[in-house]
Amino acid sequence: MAAIKNVAMVGASGALGMPVLNALLKSGKFNVTVVKRPSSAARFPDSVAIRTADLSSVDAVTAAFQGQDAVVSTVGTDGLAGQNVLVEAAVAANVKRFLPSDFGCDIAKPKTGEMPVFGYKVATHKALRDAAATKPDFTYSLVCCNAFLDYGLEKNMLLTWKERKPTLYDGGKNLFSATTLDTVGQAVVGILTHPEETKNRFVYVKDIDVSQNQLLEIAKKVDPGQKWEEPVLVDTAALEKSSYESLAKGEFTMSVMMGFLFRVMFGPPEYGGRFTETDNELLGVKGKTEADVEAMLKSLIHGSK
Question: What is the tens place of the pLDDT at every residue in 194-217?
Answer without folding.
Answer: 999 999 999 999 999 999 999 999
